[in-house]
Amino acid sequence: YKLQPGGPLLRGSSLVILFGGGVELNRALSDFEEAFLMRMHHQQVSVLFAGLCGVGDDMWRGGLWEYGPLLLGRTNVGLHAEEVIRTVRFALHRLEASGGIVLASVGGELHSPLLGGYEAPPATMPGGTASALLHAVPHLPLKARTGGPAVVGLALYREQCSYAAAAVALRHRLPWLMQMVGVLEDYDLPDLLALLSRRPHLRLLLLDPLAATGRKLSRLAAQRTFKAAARAYSEVGRPLRLIVRPDKGPGDASKVMADFVAKAVNRQYM
User: Are 235 and 194 in contact (CB under 8 A)?
Assistant: First the structure.
């Protein structure tokens, strides 16, 4: 893991745990991550970059991680959700992050800087971490050791959040780590988003969600996809933040994410 510049995590401070992105895929910060890290440094919020099994590993290109969990009678989502839970417990008990934890995932296309002195080719992050996060959050502790809320925010940036959209699409780019056989017989990811409204103190940000094709959803399509979740959050007085922006680059996205983190850790209604 990697913490913000300036030393180890201070006891009782807030923490962002970021999954996906350039660090996980290519072991190097993307432009978004560099901008976001500096904003968190100025807010005195630490950042932990957490990797999930198979992501960023050359072996996943050959299909090992794509089918390995299935041979064990599990799913990639279940395997990664367990890792998310372990990561949060590590942050609560070993890092003593009791000032509120915000979970964040980054998907979509990311371009990496220099790797080992050589310019890396453009890389496409498979995305799909959002599914593991949404399955993990209901099982996370409600309280930190100090008695305050353990997890205060969930931010999903450039992530696919609907299995149904992939099921009806003529062509889709469903990330391998999202695979779940038969899931739509019982629920979809927007249903999990709505369920999370019952978790006290949890704020939710959906920033530039993606369609099944990997392209950004239009504002109207996003509102239609997450209508039930938005209604559930509105009923408990914590509006779901759904933002679809014109393409303004990673710096603007990092500002939106940083503003969300600041309000979540301070438990402000948005």
Answer: no
Question: What is the C-alpha to C-alpha distance for residues 130 and 189, in angstroms, rounded to an integer?
Answer: 9
What distance in Å separates the CA atoms of residue 160 and residue 143, rounded to the nearest whole number? 29
Terminal Cα-to-Cα distance of the chain (whole angstroms): 30
- Ranges of residues in the chain with a pLDDT under 50 are 1-6, 62, 110-124
Query: Whole-prediction pTM value?
Result: 0.86
